[in-house]
Every structure is written in C-alpha cells, then in structure tokens.
Amino acid sequence: MNAEGTPALAAEPRVADFGKRLIITADDFGFSREVNAAVARAHQQGVLTGASLMVTGAARDEAAHVARENPRLDVGLHLVVCRGSSVLPASQLHGVADAGGRFGENPVMAGMRYFFNRRVRGLLRDEVRAQVELHLQLTGTLNHIDGHLNFHVHPVIADLLVEFAAEYHVPCIRLPREPVFTTIRLAGDHASRKLVEAVIFRALSRRTRRMIAARGIISTDWLFGLHQSGNLSEEYVIGVIGRMRPGLTELYLHPAEDIGVTPPSPQAQREVSILTSSRIRAAIEAEGIQLTNFAMVACSRNEEVAPGSNSLRPVREAKHNGEP
User: Fold this and answer.
1) Cβ neighbours of residue 200 closer than 8 Å, sequence gap 6 or more
2) Quick check: is 7 in a domain?
3) Average pLDDT of span 187-191
4) Please, which pLDDT band fits residue 312 given cuts at 50, 70 and 90?
5) Which letter, b or e, does each residue of 262-273 get, where b requires 16 or more Cβ atoms within 10 Å of its Cβ?
6) How many angstroms separate the CA atoms of 271 and 275, rounded?
C-alpha cells in the first residue's frame, strides 16, 4: 500500500517478466451509494484495482466523483441492456425498454427478443453508443468494457460492442470464460448449474474472442467471478489465488457497504471484507502475484512478446488448457 493508502500496483511487466498478474474488479459501480462506498474503501484500503461503471445507475455521478478522487482506480463500462435503465429516452427505444426506460428483467426473454427481432437491433446500436459516450463524458477514459449479467457476449450485443470498441479505441473486453472445474473443486455447490453456465458462456466467449482478436482487442487469459457470483468467500478467493496460472487473470466481485441508509445484502457486505482482508493481501504476496488493472495492461498492449512467454499477448494466442 502506498502513502496515499491505495493498493500498490506493480509496474506493468516488461517482455522478460513471466509472472502472474491479477486484475480485481468491482462491478455495478454507480448502481448505488452503497456500491460506491464499497469501491472507494476496497480500493483505498484493500486490493481492488478497477471498477465497472453503470452509467445509468442512480449514483453514477457520485461514482464519477469517486473515480476522479482515486486516479489509480481504472474505471471501465458496465454495459446495461437487461435489468437496468437506458441512457436514451424510452420514446426512442420502443420494443427494447418500457415506458419508464427500463430494460426487461428476464435475461432469457430479453436475449431471445434481441436475437430474433431485427427491428430492435438499430435501437440497441443507438443505446450502446449512448452508453459508451456517456461513460467517456463522465470519466474521460475507457480502457475496458464488460456487461451487466455478462450480456455483452450475447451475439447481437457483442457485434455492436466490438464495433464500438474498435471505433472508440477501447483496448480490452472481458470474456466470461472461467475455468469451471477449478471453481467446482474449490466450491462444489450447484455444480450442475455451473457446468451449464460454462457451456453457454464458453460458446459465446469463443465467438467473441475471434471477433476481438480480429480487431486487435485483448482480454485476460483467465477469469473468476462468474460461476460463484453471489457466493464468494474468503476461502474461495484464497483458493483461486493459490491456483492462478502464469498470465493475466481477472477476478470480479459485487461489493456494497452498509452506510446507514439501505443495508446491502450480507453477501455484498462480505465481499467488502474479502477485498480488505489482510489474508487476501498476504496470499497475493505469498504467490508473487502482481496487482494490475486494464489501464496498465492497455499501456503495454503494443509490446512485442517473446515466443512462448506468458506475458500479455493478443487473445488469439491465449491458451486455456481445454477447460470450459
């Protein structure tokens, strides 16, 4: 931890450095003041290195202020097209959002409507662009994009997102492809559900991976946070840290802190404790893991990588040892 109390991020390694690097991200930044408070505390007192901003969240302006007050916190876009509100007025999104500007609550129904109703695709294009541009207005930078409920790898949304990422020079996109058997070994609950999720997101991520590789956009080698979302524990995270492979890994969480207004769920509060835990920090240090973020990754994206190395590389070269 540095003198300002923020996590000590390692300088982005050079080509000759073959180690384990970890990005720790908080999703739903801007959703509420409770989430914003958690992000600020977890970054200043813990190991959080990045956040993903919901630009239509009720507390998005406060989140932008938190981002300005913490310049080492890398803030990406958490694209919302389901279970949330739109940027554009409802009058411009008939068939996509309701009269109050709310997207559908059922991910399966929303996904089917987006896929089969060609009329809504132009509306979605306008909304995705509006969210990208609003994010840039609020924060001034955009180094990574992911999606609420991981909707950003839905075929229709992914097509739009990759197009706009290239247009706006966004260097990184999250691919929700988690080593599911590692997660099941660490937490065996709901194994069948996790396997089904893995099959779905493996297929969607494979398609998106090809698209972003063609545009020179990168992602991480590994990701955790998908299958155990809502059930994270300190022991599980320590287990993930102990099993990290060389390369770039992202772990994402959904923390929220009780600030005396509307108490968040116990799990969201537990995730704040995980992010500020001395045991988590000690585990990271013991494994020789370098904390980083997407902004630092973006700075090194054009480095030439030695053949066979595990340093940052285009996603088309990333290997996953056959795991879903």
Assistant:
1) none
2) no
3) 95
4) very low
5) eebeebbbbbbe
6) 6
Domain assignment present for residue 321? The answer is: no
Residue 319 counted as domain residue: no
For 99, the domain range is 20-313
Least confident interval from 17-26, 61-70, 166-175: 17-26
**CA of 199: how far to CAs of 43, 86, 204, 227, 306, in Å?**
33, 29, 9, 12, 32
Give the CATH number for residue 193: 3.20.20.370
Q: Residue 228 corresponds to which tokens in the numbers above? A: 């155990």
Q: Smallest Cα–Cα separation from 109: which of 78, 82, 86, 149?
A: 82
**Residue 144 tokens, joined:** 């990574």
Q: Is residue 324 situated within a structural domain?
A: no
* The total number of structural domains that make up the chain: 1
| Placement of tokens 């695709």 in the chain | 121
Beta strands in 176-294 (DSSP E): 222-224, 247-253, 290-292
Q: Are 177 and 225 a contacting pair, CB within 8 Å?
A: no
Structure tokens at 151: 């909707």
